Amino acid sequence: MVEVTEPQPGGRAGLLAILSLGNFAIGMGAFVPIGILTPLASDLAMSNAEAGLVLTVYAIAYAISSPLLVSITGALPRRLVLVAGLSLFLLAAVLSALAPSPTTLFAARIVAAAGAGVFTPVAAAVAVSCSAPAQRGKALSTVFFGLTLAQVLGVPVGSWAGYTYGWQAAFWIVALITGLSLVGVMTLVPRGVPFQPASLASLGQVLTAPRKMLAVTFTVSFLSAIYILYTYVAPLLETRMGFGRDGVTFMLILFGLGAVVGNILGGFLTDRIGGFRTLIVLCVAQMSILPVFSLLPFPEALVAVAMFGWSMAGWSFMVPQQARLIELAPDQQNVVLSLNSASIYLGASLGSALGAVVISTWSIAASGVAAAIAMAAAFAHLLLSAAVQKK
Question: What is the pTM of this model?
Answer without folding.
Answer: 0.75
